Amino acid sequence: DPFTYEDPNEAVREFAKEIDVSTVKIEEVIGAGEFGEVYKGRLKLPGKREIYVAIKTLKAGYVEKQRRDFLSEASIMGQFDHPNIIRLEGVVTKSRPVMIVTEFMENGALDSFLRKNDGQFTVIQLVGMLRGISAGMKYLSEMNYVHRDLAARNILVNSNLVCKVSDFGLSRYLQEDTSDPSYTSSLGGKIPVRWTAPEAIAYRKFTSASDVWSYGI
Fold first, then answer.
1. Which SUPFAM superfamilies match (predicted)?
2. Do 70 and 143 belong to one domain?
3. Which of 102, 109, 132, 213 could form a disulfide with 197 if both were Cys (CB 3.0 to 4.6 A apart)?
4. Number of domains forming the structure of the chain
């Protein structure tokens, strides 16, 4: 669990690969996150072909806590290896801006993609998307992680209509040494109320079951 590390930078070093900034080419802005802008770009690692990537950046003027929170998502993503979980390519921490580099998903977020193509998909295609999301969430559960912010806006879609779970900023590790694995949020943290299970709203207690509720919504 990256949040148990006394030095968050150690967690990043353990779970996320450092990328040389010279291998990254930033191209166009494709969105904005909590910590800064998100770009489409290219990554050319030695001995590998050049690929398109998404690049999350940390805006200038950040404080250390913002840097820690930004990179904690990479520490979590770096532990996952599943076809329905967004793949972390690596991080850039030794130059500015600090970056999180992930695979690029051509069709973007599921919510806007479905709205833009309303009525264009067969039932079989839609069920295939749902199965992909549930497979990714099942994997997270098996890894003892609770996502806490599962919504169509946090599912990304590639050119083959494969759906992948992304945005692990609120994800937390569930303790194994208990009969009731759960994560209890401290007061004051933001909760996406429309997608969150009643017990999670009332008691700030999150489990794989509360992720199932969000999946149903």
1. Protein kinase-like (PK-like) (SSF56112)
2. no
3. 213
4. 2
Other beta carbons within 10 Å of 5: 16
Domain that residue 142 falls in:
108-216
Catalytic residue among 149, 167, 177, 211: 149
Residue 40 annotated as binding site? no
Same domain, residue pair 116 and 44? no
Among the listed ranges 89-103, 147-161, 167-181, which one has the minimum average pLDDT value? Answer: 167-181
pTM of the model: 0.84
Q: Which of 103, 123, 144 represents a domain boundary (last residue)?
A: 103
For residue 3, what are the contacts with CB-CB under 8 A and spacing of at least 6? 11, 72, 172, 173
- The CA dihedral of 171, 209, 1, 36, to the nearest 10 degrees, is 0
Helix axes 208-216, 123-142, angle to 10 degrees: 170
